[in-house]
């Protein structure tokens, strides 16, 4: 890591000693792989930047099909004007995904026979962690639909609608060339009863060709409302199978939670067999499915909660101020927010935090109509405790071991390997015997001078 260039040789020695203890792993391990949204075939991504009653919502469009057939209908709490809608850069959501994705890290056991320094350090390192204001009104008395605003933003044609009843809204959308799937009427009705408006966008084909983009760019809307929620029910109209939703919530306060469903942390900070290095994607999918089933499927998982000013280990660099602004963070220049995040002084060898006024929560929801009949309602908290989905590979020391400590180290390994196998089986609902066999093959490819019989690890002859 770059930070080591600033350390003195003395500190390097101290760190090497501390690597014996799990509490010091952050200083001697490194990131290997991440479990990002590419693992899921049907994963929607939404970024919500919120402070007070103001929200900036960015929606990734993973639409598969002809661009001319694309249309999106999103319930919003108020009539949006042109200056409240923009198109975001496509890679901004990819950056958030990479930064917050569950990650795999690996560590290497030091030589247990190496002499220890004569000094000791009784101290632990801790991480410190619109233009169209006069929009025309078109009302159809029969359908009960009103066009509150109509404008164009880059390659998107947008209308803001209000409606008196869902059948009329469904008919209006169909008559105006929007391809609405069957079943929309039933899901539109609750939003109409709540007096919500409807943000409707489709692609302007001429402007899309002029843009030069091959894929649809994310749409970003901003509004002010005391409601901190995300409408997901309309996304279920076409859902024939379970859908994955990743929500990145950016806040100057702390961790965000779902209030109308349970929010639990994804199983994390466990040692697993080293062969998972080549199977991390499949491992995490199995882990998530196992946890999802165990929790009764009506639950949201916290996969990451961290201050944007740092990361450890880093799956990707923290977002810069420019990238955060692109993601909708609007409070960066507000000095009054500094009191919300009291950061401890930074050591001279550490780079300054990029931004300590942005806390990111990554929530992962797998839903169907039956398991999530309500829209998601969120709550911002003052909890700034750091959390990440993190899975550890710990490699045994390979050198010669003649000292007494080395012999004790050898005797401890079979129990450790068995614990890793049991942990993996529990996390993924896997077959313990298959896991043991894979472990023997993976470690058997390494050369250990002290290892005469791999099978004896588990007492399996």
Describe this structure in words.
With 461 residues, this protein is α+β, with helices and mostly antiparallel strands. It folds into 2 domains: 37-111 and 130-261 and 298-394; 395-457, no CATH class. It is 23% helix and 26% strand. Strands 2, 3, 5, 11, 13, 15, 17, 18 and 20 form a 9-stranded mixed beta sheet that branches. A 5-stranded antiparallel beta sheet has the order 4-10-9-8-7. The two termini are 43 Å apart.
Contiguous runs where pLDDT drops below 50 for at least 5 residues: 1-29, 119-139, 336-354, 444-455, 457-461
What's the shape? elongated
Report the strand count. Answer: 21
- Counted by DSSP, the helix tally is 9
Helix-residue proportion: 10-25%
Query: What percent strand?
Result: 25-35%
- Please write the string of helix (H) and strand (E) elements: HEEEEEHEEEEHHEHEEEEEEHEHEEEEHH
Structural class: alpha+beta
Report on the biggest sheet: 9 strands, mixed
Please give the radius of gyration in angstroms: 26 Å
Give the tally of structural domains: 2
Provide mean pLDDT, rounded: 80
The first-to-last residue Cα distance is 43 Å
């Amino acid at each position: 890591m770059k930070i080591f260039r600033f350390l003195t040789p003395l500190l390097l020695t101290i760190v090497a000693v501390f690597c014996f203890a799990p509490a010091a792993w952050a200083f001697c391990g490194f990131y290997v792989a991440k479990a990002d949204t590419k693992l899921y075939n049907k994963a929607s991504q939404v970024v919500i930047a919120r402070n007070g009653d103001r929200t900036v919502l960015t929606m990734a469009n993973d639409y598969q099909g002809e661009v001319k057939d694309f249309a999106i209908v999103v319930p919003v709490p108020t009539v949006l004007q042109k200056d409240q809608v923009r198109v975001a850069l496509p890679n901004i959501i990819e950056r958030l995904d990479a930064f917050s994705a569950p990650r795999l890290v690996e560590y290497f056991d030091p030589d247990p026979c190496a002499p220890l320094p004569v000094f000791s350090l009784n101290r632990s390192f801790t991480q410190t962690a619109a233009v169209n204001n006069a929009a025309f009104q078109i009302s159809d008395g029969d359908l009960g639909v009103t066009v509150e605003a109509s404008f164009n933003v880059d390659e998107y044609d947008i209308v803001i609608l209000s409606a008196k009843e869902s059948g009329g809204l469904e008919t209006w959308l169909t008559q105006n060339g929007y391809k609405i799937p069957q079943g929309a009427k039933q899901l539109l009705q609750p939003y109409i009863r709540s007096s919500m408006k409807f943000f409707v966008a489709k692609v302007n084909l001429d402007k899309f060709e002029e843009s030069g983009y091959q894929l649809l760019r994310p749409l970003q809307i901003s509004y002010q409302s005391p409601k901190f929620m995300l409408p997901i029910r309309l996304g279920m109209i076409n859902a024939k199978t379970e859908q994955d939703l990743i929500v990145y919530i950016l806040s100057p306060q702390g961790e965000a939670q779902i209030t109308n469903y349970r929010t639990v942390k994804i199983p994390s900070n466990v040692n697993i067999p080293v062969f998972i290095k080549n199977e991390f994607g499949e491992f995490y999918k199995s882990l998530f499915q196992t946890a999802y089933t165990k929790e009764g499927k009506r639950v949201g998982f916290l996969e990451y909660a961290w201050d944007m000013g740092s990361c450890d280990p880093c799956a990707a660099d923290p977002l810069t101020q420019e990238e955060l602004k692109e993601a909708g963070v609007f409070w960066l220049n507000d000095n009054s927010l500094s009191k919300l995040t009291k950061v401890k002084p930074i050591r001279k060898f550490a780079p300054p935090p990029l931004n300590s006024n942005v806390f990111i929560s990554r929530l992962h929801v797998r839903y169907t109509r039956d398991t999530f009949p309500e829209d998601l309602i969120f709550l911002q908290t003052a909890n700034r405790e750091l959390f990440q989905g993190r899975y550890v590979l710990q490699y045994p020391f390979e050198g010669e071991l003649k000292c007494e400590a080395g012999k004790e180290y050898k005797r401890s390994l079979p129990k450790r390997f068995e614990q890793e196998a049991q942990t993996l089986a529990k996390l993924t609902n896997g077959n313990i015997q298959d896991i043991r066999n894979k472990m023997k093959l993976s470690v058997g490819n390494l050369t250990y001078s002290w290892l005469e019989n791999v099978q004896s690890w588990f007492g399996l002859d």
